[in-house]
Amino acid sequence: MDLSSANLRHIAQQLYDAIVEAGRNALQVQISPRIFNAREALSVDTSQTYRELVTASVDEDVLRFMRHKVDSIAPLDGYWEEVGTSRRPGGHYWCIGKVDGAINFVRNMSEWTLTLSLFEINETGAAYPILGIVHAPALGMTYLAVRSEGAIRIRHTSSGDKRQRIIPTTTRTLAGSVVSFGMSYFAQEPRRAIDAVARMAGLPADIKRIGPASLDLCKVADGTYDAYFEPTLHHWDIPAVSAGSIIVWESGARLRRWDDSEINWYENNDIVASNGLITDELQKYLIQ
């Protein structure tokens, strides 16, 4: 299949329409009485996770629906999570995400997303996202990027979609900046994020923790945040991070690992995204 910029844009538009429809269905679940009942159940039985109790069925519906759409529009070489080590140079693999921000979803917060990305494998076997969509149904907002075409934010309004090209901020120091961070709920892993926040406390104008990762990345891309960092992102975070990553890069912002190396999609990553102007200063507080 022709994956020129023009054709990628066409594919992205069709899949944008699909993910908006999937998001509409997921949002109906979030606002249903079932979510309140799930919160009550979790307060009694803490052995179950939010995803196990509530979003598992939503995830299944989203994955099934989006896979059907992808297969009918541009199946390419298959799916990232299925091909494993058989990903071949020159191959193109779709990565469909579950609900990113399961706790926010269950707690009736608006900050949760559905994500989709397309990986291209180069001649050395390295993987790079070349298309990404991050859709936030409850916010009425979608971010979209295609390789070499820039990144846009689409606001869904009663009078139609409003599209706007996005760029990062020009803030040059941590002083007065707005920084976001993320952390997992696994024992020990959050400590590194909390320690980094403690070291830089008092410098930024605000340090926020809202999530999820995909949306935090997009908020760096559109200038809402000056930077975002999170340690130990796992293989199950790849759909969210890969979709957000190309939006960051295409906006002109910067995304690397804490040690300033490239993101490696085959292992865990400590990531830091910024407008590109405060990365060096921020890294001093991440690496200790």
TrEMBL record:
Which keywords label this protein?
Answer: Magnesium, Metal-binding
Give the binding site residues for Mg(2+): D100, D237
Q: Does the record's keyword annotation contain Membrane?
A: no
Out of the domains of life, which is the source?
Bacteria
Reply yes or no: does the keyword Metal-binding apply.
yes
InterPro entries linked: Inositol_monophosphatase-like (IPR000760)
What are the GO MF terms of this UniProt record?
Answer: inositol monophosphate 1-phosphatase activity; metal ion binding
Tell me the cofactors it needs.
Mg(2+)
Q: Name one Pfam family in it.
A: Inositol_P
CDD domains listed in its UniProt record: IMPase_like (cd01637)
Q: Name one GO biological process term.
A: inositol metabolic process
**Protein name per UniProt:** Inositol monophosphatase
| Species the sequence originates in | Scardovia inopinata F0304
